[in-house]
Amino acid sequence: MSTDRNIPEGRAWVYGDNIDTDQLAPIKSYKNMEAEEGCKFCLEALDADFAGAVEDGDIFVAGANMGIGSSREQAPLHLKLLGIRAVLAKSFARIFYRNTLNFGVPALICADVDRINSGDRLRVDPLKGRVENLTTGETLSCDPLPEHLMAMIADGGLMPHLTKKLKQEA
Amino acid sequence: MPKPMTLSEKIIAKAAGVESVTPGDIVTCAVDLAMMHDSSGPRRAGRMLDELGVPVWDKDKLVVITDHYTVDPDPASAAIQDHAREWVAEKSLPHFLPDQGICHVVLPENGFLKPGMFCVGGDSHSTTGGAFGAFMVGIGATELAGVLATGEIWVRVPETLRIDVTGKLAPGVAAKDVILKLCGDIGVMGANYMVVEYAGEAVRALSVDERMTLTNMAAELGAKTGIVTPDKATAEWLAEAGAGDVDIETWQGDDGAPVSRTITIDGAALAPQVAAPSNPENAADVTEYAGTPVQQAYIGACTGAKLEDLRMAADVVRGRTKAAGLRFFVAPASNKIRDAARTDGTLQTLEDAGALILPTGCGGCIGIGDARLEENMTGISSTNRNFVGRAGPASSKLYLGSPCSVAAAAITGEITDPREFIGEFL
């Protein structure tokens, strides 16, 4: 595994279109439990094995409309807590996209996700917008992250970014 | 001559402190009002604000409403309510509206929204605020914590999708059918990141309650938000809600402002729409699904339990009785609506038909309280989403329809074209 946290490397977990927030964070997973516990129910209705088998450094790969639905940010938070270090998709629902980036997890729009199979080993360079499929030897390109968010993502998300900014202003 | 702008662009430009904006621009906007509820508010965004160690940027511009865990007897829900109350008290926040109803309805009911405002809400259906000519977007809790700390948020100026609904909707056809038709035609990401501007003769003829259904479910088109140009009906609604200084003239789009795409819907020809499990984009004419047995009919949520929604349902069930064995629930979207529906006899009509009136709140829409679907149960509801596991266990199935369609199904026990009932009252 790559030791550089900014260049995640891990196994791909590939799913289809329309992964919604009710699947990523069913209500029982966040009503009365912390996300560290609730993340065990992530994607339960779609793939009961996912939460138990995903490992730190893994990459989540989805089709179109990733994260549609609610604004509940337990959806990307569960993925992060389970160890997911980057999310690739053909397209993202807008609130999920912002929520994911706000947690410091790169969300990358990637037209060629169909060329990735579950279990492939991927190395993702979010700043360059490049995905190396170490299993197939292919290199895929993604849309680069929005430039105005680079500093926030480099700081690890919105809260660390604001903490730093507030300290500088103080 | 300044370049023509849409209403949304004018609001964003004002909030960003610039002359004009163009779709694709990234700007930082000053927030006129932030709204948050008990689920993503004090316990998440509030906690993060406290960790940052800074105060709320402007207490007068924050409204806290409880609606998610208010109808739930679970002690965990009570603890969430206690925390919300304590957090608000500790911060001495002036605008706290607990247990009054669902945030998207309670916020304008209390006069907090006006045309021209730039607003954020910690909930995806915050798009509802667009029915009042405000630009209001839904955001996550971390983003909300950022707004609470700084009073600002970055925005990519959205392209405009204009929906032109021509003609006049037929009796038994509602705003919900317009928006479900759109979900079916362009899909749940059909307006990805765009602002959906609802216009045309049929929209102008809609009440503000009905316009709220359109902007509410802009979220189900993947839109950044939805908006309706304010007019006399808006001004009258807001005057009743006690919103002072409502300026309709300023907050109009310019003639000739460019839009990215226009979709025309023939309002007069539109049939009631029903979305099949488990995605709002599975919408089709009600006749496609007619005869499907349902065991629960639910009139509820910010989308489908406003006063006019309850009246529509009452018109369908008047003088009839619900199907044997079916559970028929009505949860008004706010206490104010409940009281008005009690005064004008609407609740009585619904109860006479066998409806059980539930307390207000998000309730059945998010799988909480008495209207939560049971294992393997099929329901129809006037809510906004029917994703797997949302309104009940993963084995349950949910159809979405207008209050008329839900009421018709309550009577027959199966999905039914509500025009069959409405016709008799003409």
Q: Predict the CATH topology of chain A.
A: Aconitase, domain 4
What is the H/E string of chain A?
Answer: EHHHEHEHEEEEHH
Count the helices of chain A. How many? 7
Strand order of the largest sheet of chain A: 4-3-2-1-5-6-7
Largest sheet of chain A: 7 strands, mixed
Report the β-strand fraction of chain B as a percent range: 15-25%
Distance between the termini of chain B: 51 Å
Number of DSSP strand runs of chain B: 18
**End-to-end distance of chain A:** 39 Å
CATH architecture of the largest domain in chain B: 2-Layer Sandwich
CATH topology of the largest domain in chain B: Aconitase, domain 3
The overall strand count of chain A is 7
Tell me, rounded to a whole number, the average pLDDT of chain B.
Answer: 97
CATH class of chain A: Alpha Beta
**Total domains of chain A:** 1
Description:
The complex is a heterodimer of chains A (170) and B (426). Chain A contains seven helices and seven strands; from the N terminus they run E-H-H-H-E-H-E-H-E-E-E-E-H-H. The termini of chain A are far apart. Chain A has one domain (9-145): Aconitase, domain 4 (Alpha-Beta Barrel), CATH 3.20.19.10. Helices cover 28% and strands 17% of the residues of chain A. Chain A has 170 residues and is α/β, with parallel strands linked by helices. Chain A has a seven-stranded mixed beta sheet. Chain A is globular and about 50 Å long. In chain A, 49% of the residues are buried. Chain B is α/β, with parallel strands linked by helices and 426 residues long. Chain B has two domains: 7-241 and 252-266, 2-Layer Sandwich (Aconitase, domain 3), CATH 3.30.499.10; 274-425, Aconitase, domain 3. In chain B, 33% of the residues lie in helices and 18% in strands. Chain B contains 16 helices and 18 strands. Chain B has helices spanning 7-16, 41-52, 75-91, 103-109, 141-150, 175-186, 201-204, 208-216, 232-241, 286-289, 301-304, 307-317, 335-343, 346-352, 403-412, 419-422, and strands at residues 26-30, 33-37, 62-65, 96-97, 118-121, 135-138, 152-156, 160-166, 195-199, 225-228, 261-266, 273-275, 283-285, 296-299, 327-330, 356-357, 378-381, 397-400. Chain B has a five-stranded parallel beta sheet with strand order 4-3-2-5-6, sandwiched between helices. Chain B has a five-stranded parallel beta sheet with strand order 16-15-14-17-18. In chain B, helix 2 (41-52) crosses helix 3 (75-91), helix 2 (41-52) crosses helix 5 and helix 12 (307-317) crosses helix 14 (346-352). Chains A and B meet through helix 1, helix 5 and helix 7 of A and helix 2, helix 3 and helix 5 of B.
